[in-house]
Design brief:
Layout: H1 3-12, H2 15-41, H3 47-71, H4 73-78, H5 80-101, H6 110-128, H7 134-156, H8 167-181
Helix pairs in contact: 1-2, 1-3, 2-6, 3-6, 5-7, 6-7, 7-8
């Protein structure tokens, strides 16, 4: 992936390059949103595609995190407790999902969608403009909340399901499966 070197380059480049890079980050966000919208409209979404989308999002944000580590290590030091909590929860989620379902969860919850927007806002403001490192703290805290929701959903569901938008929806799905099983 060329994203890491591109981020490092823009961190040392002038404002023109940073604006270009910010535009690329925003274009990546919009393409991520629209590919889901179009896939649903064209009725070509599959469970495998949803899992791949989640995996691609994870790789993208790991690359962005690497860029923040390289360009703004003080932001990482200031948020190390939240980062460790978030990393531990992410690992716990992957392990739980594998143990329960033998595959990665792909819930695409509303909280996770908001987290993606917060991460993009934090990334653009910090990596492109060198401003608002507090957004990184807010985004990391929100990520912990999202992982708590994801863990709860994984514990509630009796079988793997994609696109479980809320914890309430997971509870409804569990009740429905419970009634069918009786």
């Amino acid at each position: 992936m060329l994203l890491g070197p591109a981020i490092v380059w823009t961190a040392k480049a002038g404002w023109h390059a940073r604006i270009l890079f910010g535009s690329i980050l925003i274009a990546a966000l919009l393409s991520d949103i629209w590919d889901g919208v179009l896939a649903r409209r064209w009725q070509c979404t599959t469970a495998r595609l949803r899992v791949a989308d989640s995996a691609a999002d994870t790789v993208f944000y790991l690359g962005t995190a690497a860029a923040v580590i390289i360009c703004y290590p003080y932001v990482i030091r200031a948020n190390r407790i939240l980062l460790l909590a978030l990393a531990a929860m992410e690992v716990a989620r992957y392990c739980l999902d594998y143990i329960r379902f033998r595959k990665m969860a792909s819930y695409h919850t509303y909280l996770a969608k908001a987290w993606g927007l917060l991460l993009i806002a934090a990334s653009v403001s910090l990596l492109c403009f060198g401003r608002f490192p507090v957004l990184v703290t807010i985004a990391l805290g929100w990520g912990v909340v999202c992982d708590l929701e994801g863990l709860a959903i994984s514990m509630i569901l009796r079988e793997w399901a994609p696109d479980v938008k809320t914890l309430t929806r997971a509870l409804e799905m569990r009740r429905r499966v419970g009634r069918v099983a009786v």
